[in-house]
């Protein structure tokens, strides 16, 4: 096994060979030291975002064949740690100062709530009923002034409440985080209502308007919301405070261009929401009861406008009160406006339980001061409803419920070892007491890609794989889709049949005559302890893969005496791969690797006592393929014309070259010679055989005018022989699923997409071409390109079966 190690800057990549799946990370560091000349202490290794730590193996990190491991080289001397102040202590002290100032400002100077008290400064009196704007959403809420103070020198007057309302107060429109409003653009605060002095104010002196404005900018109004007493006393600027709205305007009093206060819901305009300033745009009245009012919602800033909003509650349009209006107190009445319910589920009924606006465990609305709000799901929890319950409210700024909180015991931090995997703990390699290093075999590295051109239960040849194709290792045969199992000799299903088999000479009494051979079934060996091969110790039975291969015979199944095919050509086809391991019993086996030899059919099968002394099942298979066998003169000539040679995994030749430099007298690998990788790479073999198109296929290509440009590009690759199909697969690949297009829809922009992929895109309300974003329209008619589908079925027979 070998991997690629690349520096973190990507400038240098080297191959590290002679590894095993069980290689320790500390051993890997030593090999990297020999190549990069970096000590293990300076190495930080990363694989798929994880830092690799000593004590683990490549198998623990699922490192595959030819995968890339990144190397970060530490500096020789780490920089000294800088002394930083404790942010937690700073937050704690800041929090205490805020709490103390809040407590001081929240203390009302008088116990009377009905008497207006002139503080001597500012435009409003203590206990006066006002409207206050939340700058985070631009809505106005009823409030009462608790105190009026001057801002200390150098202090910035806050632009929004210090205690923000929870997100659920905003009808689904989340507020900004606490304190975020202090950094908003000053133009937003200076473009509110025109608070010029039009008359005698409740506490206005005889100074000029300019002097009043300069003076009021330094005044802080401490207010308390009527509907949100849990927020306590908050500080507001003059621009966000005005007298309480009290006058309801009739329809005949409304005029285009007038600014009024209306109720509007940002998310669901048909329902009741919050109160906003608005400018009337249109007034339409077709009858006494049929009226329509459209406004522009003003959120406070010059650009904070939501246009063309239809007002639902025409009987609740309030006049905007300006500074100088008659002051109101609780003795004059409540002057309450109707607002949308805080919860759409319980309609803010205090007597009904609700798991959406209250504790999501018990649904109770009691003990609101003992509820915690999850910062992830925004659900509330009583501290005594948690499991386990909490005694007090935690001091942490962020809190997560048990469902949203990440289990810290499962999180692998940098420098920590991996957690034990239950899946790997159950593997035979983990339970065995053997100390054998099983991780060096190529069957253990796993597939780096998978064949998707045909399904796994495909009978017959795989498109694009001609007879005579040879791979160095069995795992490559699996990647090509010719024979899927890495180790097993038979691939099939006991209720369907067998799709392929490998003839590797595993039994000494097998006979290979080229065009036909006898094959011995599987089973009868002791493979306990993760063994690959073992001695015969019991009889074989016609079950599992043996039964699957017997189903390919054109005869009723007989699990006692076997059966002989009535017409052997009518049986199900089996792809046969010969391995170089079979050279010891057959001259037809390849000298190196694994070779695809074409399609065979099962002639008959029978039980008999083998040389091992136990009952085995024999199968007689006979070749039935139009392509010539690779050992015949015709087959050898075709292999030469197609330029077929042994296919090696990526990086294999480089790894063997480095190994041969270290070991000049390297022993040949099992089953074949080490390739002469030290020689310069040979030039690309010219393919002499072109891909032949039938007359029907040529006519269909001419009929597919929508894809003329693509077909012209594909026809240029006919001289590539079987590689023409690989080019076809690239040209007609669906951009969504990255597979060969199925039930193709050829768009007006000449792109081919699977019908199911395009339908999925339309269900997601994406009505553009997935390839070029050309607008197809919501009502686009998906007409399947049947001509292209017929051609793809002929070029890639069986590919649509798995789709």
UniProtKB/TrEMBL annotation:
Low complexity bias spans: 99-115
Record's keyword annotation contains Ribonucleoprotein: no
Reported function: Multi domain E3 ubiquitin ligase that also plays a role in DNA methylation and histone modifications.
SUPFAM superfamilies: FYVE/PHD zinc finger (SSF57903), PUA domain-like (SSF88697), RING/U-box (SSF57850), Ubiquitin-like (SSF54236)
Segments forming domain PHD-type: 354-407
Record note on domains: The YDG domain mediates the interaction with histone H3.
Transmembrane segments: none
Catalyses which reaction(s): S-ubiquitinyl-[E2 ubiquitin-conjugating enzyme]-L-cysteine + [acceptor protein]-L-lysine = [E2 ubiquitin-conjugating enzyme]-L-cysteine + N(6)-ubiquitinyl-[acceptor protein]-L-lysine
The keyword Methyltransferase belongs to this UniProt entry's keyword annotation: no
Gene: UHRF2
Stretches the record annotates as Disordered: 79-118, 156-211
The protein's annotated pathway: Protein modification; protein ubiquitination
InterPro entries on file: PHD_UHRF2, PUA-like_sf, SRA-YDG_sf, SRA_YDG, TTD_dom, Ubiquitin-like_dom, Ubiquitin-like_domsf, Ubiquitin_dom
Ranges where the RING-type domain occurs: 734-773
Organism of derivation: Nothobranchius furzeri
Coiled-coil zones: none
Composition bias, Basic and acidic residues: 87-98
Protein name, entry field: E3 ubiquitin-protein ligase UHRF
One GO CC term on file: nucleus
Classification via PROSITE patterns: UBIQUITIN_2, YDG, ZF_PHD_2, ZF_RING_1, ZF_RING_2
Protein location: Nucleus
Domain of life per record: Eukaryota
Domain (Ubiquitin-like) ranges: 1-78
Major subcellular site: nucleus
Boundaries of every YDG domain copy: 460-623
């Amino acid at each position: 096994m070998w991997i690629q190690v690349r520096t973190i800057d990507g400038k240098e990549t080297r191959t590290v060979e002679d590894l095993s799946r069980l290689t320790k990370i500390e051993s890997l560091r030593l090999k990297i030291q020999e190549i990069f000349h970096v000590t293990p202490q300076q190495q930080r290794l990363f694989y798929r975002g994880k830092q690799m730590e000593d004590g683990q193996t490549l198998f623990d990190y699922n490192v595959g064949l030819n995968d890339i491991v990144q190397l970060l080289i530490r500096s020789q001397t780490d920089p000294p740690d800088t002394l930083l102040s404790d942010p937690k202590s700073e937050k704690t002290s800041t929090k205490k100062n805020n709490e103390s100032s809040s407590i001081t400002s929240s203390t009302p100077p008088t116990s009377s709530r009905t008497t207006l008290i002139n503080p001597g400064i500012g435009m409003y009196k203590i206990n006066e009923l006002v409207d206050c704007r939340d700058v985070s959403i631009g809505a106005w809420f009823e409030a009462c002034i608790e105190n009026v103070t001057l801002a200390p020198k150098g202090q910035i007057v806050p632009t929004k409440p210090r205690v923000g309302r929870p997100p659920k107060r905003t009808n689904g429109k989340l507020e900004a985080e606490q304190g975020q409003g202090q950094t908003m653009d000053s133009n937003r605060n200076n473009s509110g209502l025109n608070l010029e002095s039009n008359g005698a104010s409740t506490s206005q002196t005889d100074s000029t308007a300019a002097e009043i404005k300069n003076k009021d900018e330094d005044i802080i109004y401490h207010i308390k919301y009527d509907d949100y007493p849990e927020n306590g006393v908050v500080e507001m600027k003059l621009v966000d405070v005005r007298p309480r709205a009290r006058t309801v305007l009739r329809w005949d009093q409304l005029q285009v261009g007038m600014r009024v206060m209306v109720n509007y819901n940002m998310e669901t305009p048909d329902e009741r929401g919050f109160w906003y300033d608005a400018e009337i745009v249109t007034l339409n009245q077709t009858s006494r009861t049929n009226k329509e009012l459209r406004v522009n919602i003003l959120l406070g800033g010059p650009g904070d406008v939501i246009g063309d909003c239809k007002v639902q509650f025409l009987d609740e349009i309030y006049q905007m009160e300006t500074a100088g209006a008659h002051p109101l107190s609780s003795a004059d009445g409540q002057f309450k406006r109707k607002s949308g319910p805080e919860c759409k589920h319980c309609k803010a009924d205090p007597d009904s339980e609700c798991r959406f606006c209250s504790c999501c465990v018990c649904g109770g609305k009691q003990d609101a001061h003992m509820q915690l709000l999850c910062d992830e799901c925004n659900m509330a929890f009583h501290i005594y409803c948690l499991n386990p319950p909490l005694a007090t409210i935690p001091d942490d700024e962020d809190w997560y419920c048990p469902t949203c909180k990440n289990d810290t015991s499962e999180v692998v931090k940098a420098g920590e070892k991996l957690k034990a995997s239950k899946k790997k703990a159950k593997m035979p390699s983990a339970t065995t007491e053997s100390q054998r290093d099983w991780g060096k075999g190529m069957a253990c590295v796993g597939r780096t890609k998978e064949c998707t051109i045909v399904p796994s239960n495909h009978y017959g040849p795989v498109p694009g794989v001609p007879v005579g194709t040879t791979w160095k290792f069995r795992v490559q045969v699996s990647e090509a889709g010719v024979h899927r199992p890495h180790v097993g000799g038979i691939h099939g299903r006991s209720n369907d049949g067998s799709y392929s088999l490998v003839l590797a000479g595993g039994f000494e009494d097998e006979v290979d005559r080229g065009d036909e051979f006898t094959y011995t079934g599987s089973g009868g060996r002791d493979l306990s302890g993760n063994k690959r091969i073992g001695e015969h110790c019991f009889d074989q039975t016609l079950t599992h893969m043996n039964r699957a291969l017997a189903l390919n015979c054109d005869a009723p199944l007989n699990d006692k005496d076997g059966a002989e095919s009535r017409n052997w050509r009518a049986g199900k086809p089996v792809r046969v791969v010969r391995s170089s391991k079979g050279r010891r019993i057959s001259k037809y086996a390849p000298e190196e690797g694994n070779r695809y030899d074409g399609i065979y059919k099962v002639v008959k099968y029978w039980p008999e006592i083998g040389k091992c002394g136990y009952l085995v099942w024999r199968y007689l298979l006979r070749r039935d393929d139009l392509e010539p066998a690779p050992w015949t003169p015709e087959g050898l000539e075709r292999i030469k014309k197609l330029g077929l040679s042994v296919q090696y995994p990526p990086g294999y030749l480089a790894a063997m070259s480095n190994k041969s430099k270290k070991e000049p007298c390297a022993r040949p690998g099992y089953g074949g010679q080490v390739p002469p990788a030290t020689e310069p790479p040979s030039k690309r073999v010219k393919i002499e055989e072109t891909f032949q198109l039938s007359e029907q296929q040529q006519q269909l290509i001419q009929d597919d005018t929508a894809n003329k440009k693509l077909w012209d590009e594909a026809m240029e690759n006919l001289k590539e022989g079987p590689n023409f199909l690989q080019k076809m697969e690239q040209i007609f690949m669906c951009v969504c699923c990255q597979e060969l297009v199925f039930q193709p829809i050829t768009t007006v922009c000449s792109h081919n997409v699977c019908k199911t992929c395009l339908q999925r895109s339309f269900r997601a309300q994406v009505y553009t071409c997935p390839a070029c974003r050309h607008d197809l329209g919501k009502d686009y008619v998906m007409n399947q390109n049947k001509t292209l589908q017929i051609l793809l079925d002929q070029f890639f027979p069986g590919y649509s079966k798995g789709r």
